Amino acid sequence: MRVPGQTTVVEYEAFGDAEVLQMRTRDLPRPGPREVTVEVISSGLSHIDGFIRSGSETEWDEEWPRRSGSDFAGVVVARGAEVAGFAVGSDVIGHVSSGAHATYLNVSDRVLVPKPREVTWETAGGLYLAGATALGTLDELRIGAGDTIVVSAAAGGVGSIEAQLAKHRGARVIGTCGERNFDYLRQLGITPVKYGDGLEERIRRAAGRPVTAMIDNFGKDGRDLAAALDVPPHRYRSSDDRRMLELRLLQGDPEAVAFGTDLLVRVTELARLHAFTLLISGLYPLTDIAEAYADLARLHARGKIVVATHPVTTFRTLKARDVHEAS
Prior knowledge:
Elements: E1 6-12, E2 22-27, E3 35-44, H1 47-54, E4 66-67, E5 71-79, E6 91-95, E7 104-108, E8 112-114, H2 121-125, H3 128-141, E9 148-152, H4 157-168, E10 172-177, H5 182-187, E11 191-194, H6 199-207, E12 213-215, H7 222-228, E13 236-237, H8 239-249, H9 254-272, E14 280-285, H10 289-297, E15 304-308, H11 320-326
Parallel strand pairs: 9-10, 9-12, 10-11, 12-13, 14-15
Antiparallel strand pairs: 1-2, 1-4, 3-5, 3-7, 3-15, 5-6, 6-8
Helix pairs in contact: 3-4, 3-8, 3-9
């Protein structure tokens, strides 16, 4: 395979919204002894990327210029002398602290897992942060058969994976969402409940039995709702708990990298087995990344928004959610 001497990356030099992002060409050195060069095919967008870029995420510190993106999937085009297990031509899924929004990456072989044929490129590119966060949260709560769990924002990227994997583990799952997402959640085997006044009573009716756990991805009055539902405090996770887990998954120290890769191995296998389906609600060319982030910032997307370096077409089709919101 041809190994390029340069890569196109997404960078920014000041805090701000998506308009601060710039496409730049940078030199790409040969991979080090335990590194591989990956040609990126697809890469996911996450809300925490936007929080870091805007400066609202105060726990994150990185030198300037900064790069964007943590999830990616691609093809190995070169490897260092000490790399084992990832031959040139291998399809892989990986994670980095930042910089996944690029055409080529040099990364440690410790951040990669093989991409199964059963997992599409679109899903693979958006799998890491949402999947690892969802799986890590369910592990912390020890969700299993016999549980009745409430997942808020259950149609989103993290929430939809949490809901489906909780169901896969044998739990009864109540997903809170807007009415336009009811049919989507029902198709996944999740019981939808509408946000708003009277939510506690609607959840109790839908559950038909005591609620044993709750995950709040919405970030509004979740703790009060969990207490009203008699959820034990140790079986509740807030949106701030999610934020702290995501930040841990973005760290570059060896312990954090190993933790993230272990979760990625497991969530990739669950995706291969179709234990969950990750809906891709928006696929944008890498060159349109600012527009992709603007779409994400509207907070109306189901599943994940992903960018691609080699899209088959750049022709845009009208999204059903856009029609719904315009009506």
